[in-house]
Amino acid sequence: MSEREEIAVVGAGLAGCLLACYLARRGYPVALYERRPDPRTGRVERGRSINLALSERGLDALRRIGLERQVMADALPMRGRMIHPVEGEPQFQSYSSGGDRAINSISRGALNNALLNAAAALPGVRVAFDHRLVGLDPANGEMTFETPQGKVSAAASVVLGADGAGSAVRGQLLGYGALTESLDFLDYGYKELTIPPLGGDFALDPGALHIWPRGTSMMIALPNPDRSFTCTLFWPTHGTASFASLGSPAAIERYFAIHYPDLIPLAPNLVDDYQHNPVGVLGTVRCTPWQVAGKVGLLGDAAHAIVPFYGQGANCAFEDVVELDRCLDECGDDWSAALPLYQRRRQANAEAIARMALANFVEMRDKVASPVFQTRKKIEHALERALPGRYASQYELVSFSTTPYAQVRRRVRRQYQVLGAVAAGAVAALAGAAIAFGRGRRR
Ligand code: FAD
């Protein structure tokens, strides 16, 4: 294919903007279509600010095109979890054995704007805001968009859907019978709350990701550069203990006073936030294939949205972009070979992180406060120090490496098997020693 043929990227979110940068670097003219107006001139929708934890995979993707330093200027490193019990002092748990590794809190809006600026500044990238894709013919790449001026058509030799969990590109392919999808929604939703600065400073330690594990509900808080924290409360959407169960300001105050008492003095707008911020849905999107005839492809949440409990959705979306770029390299920019190769390499990894993210929800809301979990973390850190390069925890491999997610799952399973065998051996040896000792004493 000639380098002059335009590639259409649908969705100027995190994956779409990064993808436009990578494609422009390869010499492609890129048309980036976004349904919203330019976010750099607009206001963030209430309760949808979402700050993200960006870790090694995302940073690696940014580093490869020289954007890491610029993006990280706005980021705040978090070196561990701060666990808030209902009563008593918060406890800090380091993410890494040396205490030096951090995931980074960054505003999704700021990150998106930085990537949009980078893409729009590249020669060959054209951004069309207020363009909502409503039609796509996968056979010839013809697209239809709704715009404030009415419907418009456009065509491209390759169309890449980076239009998020509710992807219209995926929906179009579904309509043509070109793919199958499954959507697994959790019965949990999320709501944003805010802890403003206290006396001009952070109200909590900004060097940690704060967690309030409460079994059936859970709250987390990430720091922002303006010294506020964005909290996200996860709770069932329906039922007797759920978002639907708190109607009045008194009920909201009572609930938080019982379950999140240390939040009350820190969140003066709690009731207002609770009553007016929307409840977002959480779920896992799976579909197959991720590409059709080398002409239409899916990346990021459009291909594989996951629940946010490992802080990996955006990191994983960025890895998709790096892998597609690598496949284009290896296939000499033959899209009909590169897109299937990209799917083969990424699908198992997306499935692996989807499963790990679901499992991490249980860990975060139920286990992080338990002494067993804390002892396990201490043992893992001790093993990492004693066996550098040979033992690494799942968290370390997911957040601080670019080891493919599927490989991480396999390696962690193997490590647990070995540890289990060693522990069983030690128990057997101890039992044998106890029996021998008992016999010795009876003689
Ligand atoms: P999106 O960011 O959703 O972008 C899609 C873009 O497509 C948007 O700009 C949208 O307007 C546009 N679009 C949609 N439909 C159309 C259309 N029809 N036509 C044109 N344009 C369209 N990830 C992390 O890595 N770390 C975290 O800590 C983390 N925390 C999270 C917390 C919460 C509560 C949630 C919900 C998610 C979190 N994530 C996190 C996940 C992360 O936000 C997503 O994985 C990431 O935004 C995916 O990027 P994307 O570009 O694929 O999709």
TrEMBL record:
Pfam families referenced in this protein's UniProt entry, alphabetically: FAD_binding_3 (PF01494)
Domain of life: Bacteria
Enzyme class, broadest EC rank: oxidoreductase
PROSITE patterns: PROKAR_LIPOPROTEIN (PS51257)
Catalytic activity: L-kynurenine + NADPH + O2 + H(+) = 3-hydroxy-L-kynurenine + NADP(+) + H2O
Molecular function in Gene Ontology: FAD binding; kynurenine 3-monooxygenase activity
Record keywords: FAD, Flavoprotein, Membrane, Monooxygenase, NADP, Oxidoreductase, Pyridine nucleotide biosynthesis, Transmembrane, Transmembrane helix
Domain FAD-binding positions: 6-355
Transmembrane segments: 416-437
This enzyme's EC code(s): 1.14.13.9
Keyword Oxidoreductase among UniProt keywords: yes
InterPro entries: FAD-bd (IPR002938), FAD/NAD-bd_sf (IPR036188), Kynurenine_monooxygenase (IPR027545)
Cofactors that this protein relies on: FAD
Any Gene Ontology biological process: anthranilate metabolic process
Pathway of action: Cofactor biosynthesis; NAD(+) biosynthesis; quinolinate from L-kynurenine: step 1/3
PANTHER family: KYNURENINE 3-MONOOXYGENASE (PTHR46028:SF2)
General function of this protein: Catalyzes the hydroxylation of L-kynurenine (L-Kyn) to form 3-hydroxy-L-kynurenine (L-3OHKyn). Required for synthesis of quinolinic acid.
Protein family according to the UniProt entry: Belongs to the aromatic-ring hydroxylase family. KMO subfamily.
Annotated protein name in UniProt: Kynurenine 3-monooxygenase
Species of provenance: Micromonospora eburnea
Gene designation: kmo
